[in-house]
Each structure stands twice: as structure tokens, then as C-alpha cells.
Write a structure and sequence with these properties.
The protein is built from 9 helices and 9 strands. It is an alpha/beta fold.
Length: 238
Amino acid sequence: MPVLVITGTGTEVGKTVATAAVAAAALAAGRSVAVLKAAQTGVGPDERGDAQEVARLAGAVTAAEVARFPDPLAPGTAARRAGRAPVRPGEVAEAAGKLATEHDLVLVEGAGGLLVRFDEEGGSLADVAALLSAPVLVVASAGLGTLNTTELTARELGARGLETVGVVIGSWPGEPDLASRCNVADLPAVSGAPLLGALPAGAGALAPAAFRSAAPHWLAPRLHGTWDAEAFRAREGA
């Protein structure tokens, strides 16, 4: 798995923090890691973007972006408003391929959900995954409504012949409600893929050293961690 594409079921589901956890666990396992943000929106030229935030939390990763646009919008819209050329899936795939020649693992983080448009032709992160023949990790929210968006994402990946390697819950609440607890069992059922981890709410606010130490405990062995889905279900009463 030299390249892993990471998408969310939508915005604000914890995708960047989950990407950082995957990076930290891989680094702890002795792998060299690069993080590529396909299109960074909503930050200025001198502000820290998502790839840089991953590096801050995870440690010694190579952080890269294909393009950056100031407005906090979908990449295609943000590019148009900025009067700049949009990001094309081929550009992202090419950048990821180059990084893969120099690193054991390249994490390609999308913007928002799987089909958020990069350009006027409708190019998306799904097209990047197809060009790279890369598996896709889906980051989902914990609570009510997540089953629909997760299933839609997994179905689209399947329709394109792409592998959903698993689902990670991007922010697990300290006091999960009934829907969240039930979703621990239901997310694998609707996605057709295993649950590969759950990050505690507020994980991104931890000091980097604490984050790096804890990250492997939030992720399953497939992602270089020690997290066990069945033990988690039993502990949380799911």
C-alpha cells in the first residue's frame, strides 16, 4: 500500500486529524511518510494548511500541496473565484507518484467528500484514486446521519472499481449516544469494509508528543496500530 487516499464523508468529520494519526502510526512503525493535500482551500499563503497540520501532529513527514486557494470553498469553485487554473486529477496523481518513489507511504488527503469537484469537468478525488489504483480510507462521523453518507461514499467507490480499505471514525465522543454506539456495528455493514479505528474527540488538540504516542492505539493493525474493533465495541457497549 504505497499510496493511500483518504476521503471524508463530508466536511468537518476529522479527516485531517485522522490523516495525522495514520501518518504517526506509520512513522512509529518505521516507515517514511509523505502527506499530499490535493487542493488546500480556505487559508492564506502564509497560513498552515492541512498537510502542515498533519506534519505538526505526526512528526517527520514530507508535507506537500498541489494547489492552494484562499476561499473556503470546493476546490473548483475556489479556483474559479481566484481566477486561477483548477487542480486536475492527473496533477495530483503525478505528484503522489513522485512522492511514492521517495517514501514508503504516501497519504493523499482530499477536500471534503469524495466527489467534491476539483475542476469544471467534475474531476475529483475518486479520479485520483483510480489513476493511482490506490485504496481509499473513508473517515466518517460517529453519530446520526453517518450511515447514509458512508454508504453513499462506499457505493460510489465500488461502482468505480475502487477499494474501500476501511472506515475510521474521525471523532468519537466521550459520552457516545445510542446512535453512535449502534453505528460501530452498522458502519462496516453499510460500507462493506472493516472499521479500522476511532479517534477520540479533541485528539487534534493534544500536544504533538502525546498525539504521536497515542495514535497507534486509535488505529487497527492494517493502519500500523493496535486498536481492536471487537474490544472497542464491548467497551463502548455497542
